[in-house]
Prior knowledge:
Blueprint: H1 13-26, H2 32-43, H3 49-60, H4 69-93, E1 97-98, E2 101-102, H5 104-107, H6 110-129, H7 134-156, H8 165-189, H9 198-222, H10 225-228, H11 234-237, H12 243-249, H13 254-260, H14 268-278, H15 281-301, H16 308-322
Antiparallel strand pairs: 1-2
Helix pairs in contact: 1-4, 2-6, 3-4, 3-8, 3-16, 4-6, 4-7, 4-8, 6-7, 7-8, 8-9, 9-15, 9-16, 12-15, 15-16
GO biological process, one term: isoprenoid biosynthetic process
Keywords: Chloroplast, Isoprene biosynthesis, Magnesium, Metal-binding, Plastid, Transferase
GO molecular function, one term: prenyltransferase activity
Amino acid sequence: MRINLKLPIKSIEKEVNQLNNNLYKMITTDNAILHSAAEQLFSAGGKRIRPIVIFNIAKFTSSNNNILIEQKRLAEITEIIHTASLVHDDIIDNCETRRGVNTIHNTFSNKIAVLTGDFLFAQSSWYLANLNNLNVVKIISKIIIDFAEGEIKQGVKSFNSNISMQEYIEKSFYKTASLIACSSKATVLLNSKSQCNENDFYLYGKHIGLAFQIIDDILDITSTSKELGKPAGLDLKNGNLTATLIFTLNSNKQIYKLINQEFQFKNDISTAMNIIKKSNSIQKAKDLALEHIQLAIHILEKQKLNNKNKKNLILLCYYILNRFN
């Protein structure tokens, strides 16, 4: 049964709207093609989950329930970094649509898409430097290194049926959880008056980030292309062996043959998806995501602060676990 939870944005709706407006200003460039490509990315929308995490952490760790200007800027920087990574991911994965619209390389070309991603990374780095906080610069800069490492780890294990669950989790950290973990930690560091331990929020971000990726990989199997806004089964097609498939390897030997032939025949992808759906692998993967959500909630519950924003951070956990698009 699907539980339709909503993102906890009521208390930060003003900040989210302001972020959407500011993103367009931050990607302004004199180059018409680059500007058009960048504008297409942000006009496609998105749930802004990473900024929502930052805003809620900022309010929770503040003594006066305020979000600092620097924390708002960090949320914008984080969303730009995330979007830049998606542009490059879509090229690597040969993904034709994202959020229901054509990807940048599909609309323009691979060259323009690479340059657009590079431009967004450069813009985010410039705004990051202007926060004038060396510790935060170091933390956020590490994310871009992690993105590259995650892609390499994923690439070298493509169609490799010997991949372990630990290797999958490690890759998922680099590709997804690192951004949420590091930006959560940086949010606390930007408030010099906060009494909270920034490493607690690094771990909170890490665990919800891992849960987010695990659920994302489940949805690649269980959802339709329309629901996803991108082609379903793309992980299988590209040889990205995720938690659902790794669990299936332990119970169904036919899946090995499909992986070894790299799903090259017409019905291989649908056959593999049916095998996964008929096993208990999807539930096992969801249980794995739940473990990380429980760890994130435990971190929140041990915080001495107890204001209404703690509830929002917990609701975020449940939203991530129960989302279906």
